[in-house]
Design a protein that fits this description.
With about 600 residues, the protein is of the alpha/beta class. The chain folds into two domains: about 300 residues, no CATH class; about 130 residues, no CATH class. Helices cover about 60% and strands about 10% of the residues. It is built from 23 helices and twelve strands. The chain has a seven-stranded mixed β-sheet with strand order 6-5-4-3-8-10-9, with helices on one face. Strands 7-12-11 form a three-stranded mixed β-sheet, with helices on one face. A hairpin with a 2-residue loop joins strand 5 and strand 6. The longest helix has 27 residues.
Length: about 600
């Protein structure tokens, strides 16, 4: 019993989850900046300006401040700074959730909630690949915990929660408006007088202005900052939201990916959900607790559906309340199971264990993920029959281990599997089901370990080859990027002395006009104006390094006009010494 009680200790949660995070994240950590956004953050350490995506709007000023503090503390590489923040943020979110859950639901609900979160595929993936998005979970728990104290009548926490919310918005600005309804309801329940409302709102405004004013003036002033943000969200939302112009099929993809990213963890709840249920009282969650969790969860969910959701890590504000409810079910199941056990206990657990072992040994990971939840459900139903008082037949620690076993198996499978499904293209109900499965599988693929490994493999090979090819003709090489498999921002970052011509659209929305921007490092050297075909000037006798997607129309045009010599996943062309030109669709390449 003494060891079980350790699960409530903050230091134990710090040690346990710190070790789990280090063991499961650090060995897979990328040695390079992983995403386009990471490069933007890297540049923002030296110069903050959202107009030039340093970082991308809305800016994340307090996160950039964290990066600058670590830079001041002699973290030499931005890659190391982001890795440290990813690991520290993951540990902080887990410890905070464990402690908050203990106070919210009592018992071991917080510990189980942290167990659900630490192995959750989205949280796991972001803990390796996105330090910024991990902090969505951190600030989400911080704001909820401070609001819960106000919800329970601690009037002074109306003020403190307002400050916490205002500062948290400086880490991830969307947290501010999305969790403001939760704060407002908590303040209303605390029944504070009008002057306390004014004081709390004033403190929240001051907390926001601490980070907002510097971000605005570093980005050209309030008008320029607001315009950059409005343009950015409208353009980004045009890809994923039907309200902003996304086609219905794309909006459906957003919806089903959100379901996968927020709901995949529920697959491991079947055993505790059954054991936690009682006929007359159900799961016995109070209306107040459900209302609080709903206010915490619903605004981010609606924002994701109606405005923007493109990356799995953007859903992490929703992960803590879901994990907390799951932690409550696990804790309630542990209490019920520890009090009364089934006469069929040994047979049920042994048979379930043998079947699951057979699945793991002889079937693929997809089959394991699909079948472990119903097996756990069946075991839970059998354990509800022929129950007698426990009398220490089943220790609580052993019961907790049995409850957690399906969670670990399912979440490991979700994270490590190479998810792929291609719909048949049929019409009607079969076609709809195929598209849903395709969207769910693609969503799970984006949160998998294979996604990290494949991205790093392609990017690392591409960058190494591009750097080698440019070094063979220094000063006479230009990179041309058009829908390349490695982000052009990464190419510019790791090839700062080589000009990179980026051929893209002025906006993400369909029908946007083409543009050409020639970059050197973080600085755009020139943006050729005019109507299509847009001109790109190259040095005669020089070299083109092509970073293209072979599945695009532009690749077909380029391969028809030039000899594209392969160099790993990229291509190159050595230009003749004589002047010449070629038109490739909306672009004109000329060398002289």
């Amino acid at each position: 019993m003494g060891f079980v009680n350790l699960l409530r200790r903050p230091w134990f949660a710090l040690v346990l989850f710190g070790l789990i995070v280090l063991v499961s994240r650090y060995p897979q950590a990328p040695g390079q900046l992983f995403t386009f956004d990471d490069v933007n953050l890297a540049y923002s350490v030296g110069h903050f300006d959202v107009r030039i995506s340093q970082p991308q709007p809305p800016g994340y000023p307090l996160f950039v401040f964290e990066m600058r503090v670590l830079h001041w503390l002699r973290f030499q590489r931005v890659e190391s700074i982001l890795l440290f923040l990813a690991l520290a943020g993951s540990i902080a979110a887990l410890v905070l959730l464990a402690q908050f859950g203990q106070r919210f639901f009592g018992g071991f609900a917080g510990f189980f909630a942290a167990c659900l979160l630490v192995f959750h595929p989205v949280f796991w993936h972001s803990g390796i690949a996105s330090a910024l998005r991990v902090q969505l979970a951190v600030v989400s728990v911080l704001v909820a915990w401070s609001c819960w104290r106000a919800w329970n009548g601690e009037r002074n926490w109306v003020l403190w929660s307002a400050i916490v919310l205002g500062l948290s918005a400086g880490v991830r600005p969307e947290i501010g408006p999305l969790l403001f309804p939760l704060w407002a309801v908590c303040a209303w329940r605390a029944k504070i007088p009008r002057r306390e409302w004014v004081r709390a709102l004033g403190a929240m405004t001051a907390a926001v202005l601490i980070w907002l004013l510097p971000a605005m003036f570093a980005s050209g002033g309030p008008v320029s900052y607001v315009k950059a943000n409005l343009d950015y969200i409208a353009d980004q939302a045009s890809v994923s939201s039907g309200l902003f112009g996304a086609v219905p099929v794309r909006w459906q993809t957003t919806f089903w990916r959100l379901v996968a990213w927020t709901g995949c963890g529920l697959l491991s709840w079947t055993l505790p959900a059954v054991l936690a249920w009682k006929r007359k009282e159900g799961w016995a969650v109070s209306r107040e607790e459900l209302a609080f969790l709903g206010l915490w969860l619903l605004p981010p969910f609606l924002f994701a559906i109606l405005v923007h959701l493109e990356d799995p890590g953007q859903s992490l504000a929703m992960a803590p309340p879901i994990a907390l409810f799951g932690g409550y079910l696990f804790n309630r199941a542990l209490d019920h199971w520890s009090a009364r056990v089934s006469r069929w206990e040994t047979v049920t657990l042994v048979v379930a264990g043998i079947v699951i072992y057979w699945l793991i040994e002889f079937r693929d990971t997809t089959t394991v993920v699909i079948w472990v939840p119903p097996i756990a459900l069946a075991a839970g139903l059998l354990l509800k029959f022929a129950r007698v008082p426990n009398a220490d037949y089943l220790p609580r620690l052993a019961a907790a281990a049995f409850l957690l076993a399906p969670l670990v198996i399912v979440h490991l499978g979700l994270f490590q599997n190479n998810w792929y499904y291609k719909g048949s293209g049929a019409s009607g109900l079969a076609g709809f089901a195929g598209r849903v499965l395709e969207d769910v599988n693609s969503g799970l693929a984006l949160t998998s370990l294979s996604h990290i490994k494949n991205t790093l493999a392609v990017d690392d090979h591409s960058l190494r080859q591009a750097i080698r090819l440019a070094a063979e003709r220094p000063g006479r090489t230009m990179v041309i990027w058009e829908h390349g498999l490695v982000a052009w921002r990464k190419v510019c970052y790791y090839m700062r002395e080589t000009p990179v011509a980026v051929l893209e659209r002025q906006q993400l929305r369909a029908g946007a006009p083409p543009v050409v921007v020639v970059w050197k490092g973080a600085n755009p050297q020139r943006r050729p104006p005019g109507q299509a075909p847009l001109s790109v000037t190259l040095p005669a006798g020089g070299r083109i390094v092509w970073i293209l997607d072979p599945r695009t129309e532009f690749y077909a045009l380029a391969s028809a006009s030039f000899t594209l010599a392969p160099a790993g996943p990229i291509y190159y062309t050595d230009l003749p010494a004589e002047s010449g030109s070629r038109i490739l669709g909306e672009y004109k390449l000329e060398w002289r």
